[in-house]
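Field log, afternoon session.

UNIT: design team B
ACTIVITY: writing a sequence onto a fixed backbone
BACKBONE:
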């Protein structure tokens, strides 16, 4: 255990001991306080040993903070998983969801969560792998143990990388996801033709890795497939639509599109459908939202890659509790896997259980 982690565990233990001592049952009734003045209350007027003082505070639930990336079905599904774990383990989940995917929205929410002073643990999806390091370092220095879900800071290697203060990283293997997506897309277009990537913004660990996985698989396995362009939509479906529209106008022989997340795929699929290009321009969508599944059913989308956000949330709370209960072997990286959804398997309950809710 690094000395920083040792000290976090150590300070947690100290805090628990202090809290336990302060709130211990009937302490004032059973022990003669050392500070009792001589000639204080006669023994007969003291509260009986079995009776708790009327003013004793009720036991407080442990509170775990969850700071999402933004308001989308991926994170609401993650919140559901986390809430389930919190209910199962008898802790309180305190959730904050930034309206937009950016550092300016996420940082003040993080600061406010730290300032509350009552969160024992924090898990979050940092919206930028570099820009969120300093704000999170500040939270860690304030004594809050944390782990990241979905996205990482630094290079994601919390053991040997440049950033080691988060305890764990629980997420999909996004590079693999990009490879799965673009292999399927290349196959869907007959291994020949132009494809286009609708992405969010450089600097986000998850979607950067999906783009890279896509590019690498095309380069390595499909010599006749060309990546004709990449656009960044700032996690805005309308922007994704406008960019896809412009791309289709500029490249009328475009054969396929990879939408790397909820709003990218939603924007791309909508334009393909509106232009009457369903089936002609193939679309692979990351994230199993209701809209992606609808587009899979009605054609513009050919493949949907479901992550497991509910598992991420559940495991994050479990790991937080394990850590607070003294477990010292928290896995530094927990990959959660995918379900690959096609028109053929979408009605199978073993697959449809991965649709985001
Ligand atoms: O794809 C997810 C998430 O994995 C990614 O990091 C950001 O976008 C989503 O939240 C979906 O909108």
């Amino acid at each position: 255990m690094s000395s920083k982690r040792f000290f976090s565990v150590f300070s947690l233990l100290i805090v628990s001991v202090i809290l336990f001592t302060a709130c211990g049952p009937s302490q004032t009734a059973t022990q003669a306080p050392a500070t009792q003045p001589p000639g204080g209350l006669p023994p007969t007027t003291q509260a009986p040993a079995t009776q708790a003082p009327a003013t004793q505070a009720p036991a407080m639930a442990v509170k775990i903070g969850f700071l999402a990336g933004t308001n989308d079905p991926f994170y609401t599904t993650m919140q559901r998983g986390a809430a389930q774990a919190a209910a199962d383990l008898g802790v309180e989940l305190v959730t904050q969801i930034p309206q937009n995917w950016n550092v300016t929205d996420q940082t003040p929410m993080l600061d406010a969560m730290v300032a509350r002073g009552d969160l024992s643990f924090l898990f979050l999806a940092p919206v930028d792998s570099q820009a969120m390091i300093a704000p999170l370092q500040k939270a860690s220095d304030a004594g809050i143990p944390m782990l990241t879900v979905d996205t990482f800071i630094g290079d994601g290697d919390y053991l040997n990388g440049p950033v080691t203060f988060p305890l764990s990283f629980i997420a999909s293997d996004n590079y693999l996801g990009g490879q799965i997506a673009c292999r399927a897309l290349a196959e869907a277009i007959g291994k020949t033709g132009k494809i286009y990537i609708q992405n969010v913004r450089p600097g986000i660990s998850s979607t950067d890795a999906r783009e890279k996985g896509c590019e690498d698989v095309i380069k390595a396995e499909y010599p006749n497939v060309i990546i004709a362009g990449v656009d960044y939509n700032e996690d805005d479906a309308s922007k994704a639509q406008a960019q896809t529209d412009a791309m289709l106008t500029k490249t009328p022989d475009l054969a396929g599109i990879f939408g790397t997340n909820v709003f990218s795929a939603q924007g791309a699929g909508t334009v393909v459908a509106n232009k009457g290009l369903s089936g002609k321009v193939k679309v692979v969508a990351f994230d199993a939202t209701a809209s992606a599944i609808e587009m899979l059913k009605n054609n513009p989308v050919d493949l949907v890659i479901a992550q497991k956000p509910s598992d991420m949330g559940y495991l994050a709370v479990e790991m937080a509790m394990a850590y607070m209960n003294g477990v010292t072997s928290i896995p530094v990286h927990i990959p959660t896997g995918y379900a690959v959804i096609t028109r053929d398997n979408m009605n199978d309950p073993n697959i449809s259980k991965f649709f985001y809710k």
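LOG NOTE: The chain has twelve helices and twelve strands.
NEXT ACTIVITY: expression trials, pending approval
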